[in-house]
Specification:
It contains 7 helices and 5 strands; from the N terminus they run αβαβααβααβαβ. Helix 2 packs antiparallel against helix 6 and helix 3 runs antiparallel to helix 4. It is an alpha+beta fold and about 200 residues long. Strands 1, 2, 3, 4 and 5 form a 5-stranded antiparallel β-sheet that branches. It is about 45% helix and about 15% strand. It has one domain: NADH Oxidase, CATH 3.40.109. One of its GO terms (biological process) is cellular response to oxidative stress. It comes from Affinibrenneria salicis. One of its GO terms (molecular function) is oxidoreductase activity. Keywords: Cytoplasm, Oxidoreductase.
């Protein structure tokens, strides 16, 4: 099927073999991430997503924090594999940290009490859409990325390191960089198991 948006979606893959070089300037990457998130939909136009973009030494600091955090809880005999995985992320050019502002969510719960139970769920929808939009936008620039979830283990140290508001809840870490090895073939389950069309 020929559709520019669908082609962009197909280009977005989990790239685990990444390097520190970028095909475009860091400022351009930051602008791309900013525009992708700004134009992502959110329930009641809440705009609850927050993003911290880390390059270079700041990016490495994140993965040092993650390593030190995991060292305290991963058994020593298993830590070698964990350390290797974290090193592969640190080898990238940067990381986009995705947060949701719980203060915004709480405000909406108070303002629209009838939907109070839904706002945390819709907040998760918002961050997922924002993450997908950024990931796809990066792929269009030939930048590889993979989405990681070391939250909530690293939340406190991350907030402390970058002096972030207490209300920001870390939801994911999108690590990105040059594509050193493309993703393998993507497989799909049968459409009949996933889709039903009625006319």
């Amino acid at each position: 099927m020929s559709n520019n948006f669908l082609q962009a979606i197909k280009a977005r893959r989990s790239i685990y073999a990444i390097g520190s070089q970028l095909p475009i300037a860091e400022d351009r990457v930051a602008a791309l991430i900013t525009e992708a998130v700004k134009n992502s939909p959110s329930a009641f136009n809440s705009q609850s997503s927050r993003v911290v973009i880390l390059f270079g030494a700041q990016h490495h600091k994140l993965w040092d924090i993650t390593k030190e955090t995991l060292k305290k809880i991963v058994p020593a005999e298993a830590f070698g594999a964990t350390e290797k995985k974290l090193a592969s992320f640190a080898a990238g050019a940067g990381t986009a940290l995705f947060f949701e502002d719980t203060e915004v969510v709480a405000g909406l719960q108070k303002k629209f009490a009838a939907y109070a139970d839904n706002f945390p769920v819709w907040s998760e929808h918002s961050t997922g859409i924002a993450q997908f939009a950024v990931w796809t936008a990066l792929a269009q620039e030939k930048i590889g990325a993979s989405l990681q979830h070391y939250n909530p283990l690293i939340d406190d140290e991350v907030k402390k390191q970058w002096d972030l508001p207490a209300s920001w809840k870390l939801r994911a870490e999108l690590v990105f960089g040059s594509i050193e090895q493309p993703a393998g073939e993507k497989t799909f389950i049968d459409d009949a198991q996933r889709f039903r069309v009625f006319k």
